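Readers of this paper often ask what the protein records in our data store actually look like. An entry from our holdings is shown next, in its original layout:
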Amino acid sequence: MKSVLIIEDDPVIAEVQRDYLEAGGFRTDIAATGDAGLKMALNGSYDLILLDLMLPNMDGFEICRQVREVLNVPILIVSAKKEEIDKIRGFGLGADDYMIKPFSLGELVARVKAHLARYERLVGSGEPKPDEIRLRGIRIDKLSRRVFVNEAEVAFTSKEYDLLLFLLMHPNRVFSKDELFLKLWGYDSLGDIATVTVHISKLREKIEADPSRPQYIETIWGVGYRFNL
């Protein structure tokens, strides 16, 4: 049975969310404060986290940031904060979804199921090798620096490979162009951040079924890029 952690300080909302999720076949736990929620998230083995933003002791943004540093579980923000800047900040910190209160509880359960199914769609059977990364049709052999898309080998330049590997190893986290340029090229490199856009475009041409409608590398407008699980 999949488990969901609800971090919500309103007991009425938390109980209703729990009732609907448990009726949908999930096991749930509730944390009523930010610090308690963070501790439970990091120490538990939850498959998904429902996260309010306005919490006692620690806000949801900080929880999202700290959880995403060490875990790749889906994080769904559920909040009354509806300003675009709050959504952008949430996605930038690694949230997978953002629902504005009030919302349909049936839709909440449906989104939880959809995100969990998305996380489970890994390619291949059995456990991947320690030096191999498998994710939704993409397989990287880190020892040989070879990349396979739907089991067909695809040629990548050295920097394209490095960029793809970096994004794959940090799924669902949004990186700005500046961050990617710094991490992959460094301050002392010739050129500018425009090269990031060029390399993202080349990656999409090689791994996406339709580069104009990318499913892997998503553009988060005004923020940067995110590799979706």
Remarks:
- Residues 105-120 form the longest helix (16 residues).
- The first strand starts at residue 3 and ends at 7.
- The two ends are 21 Å apart (CA to CA).
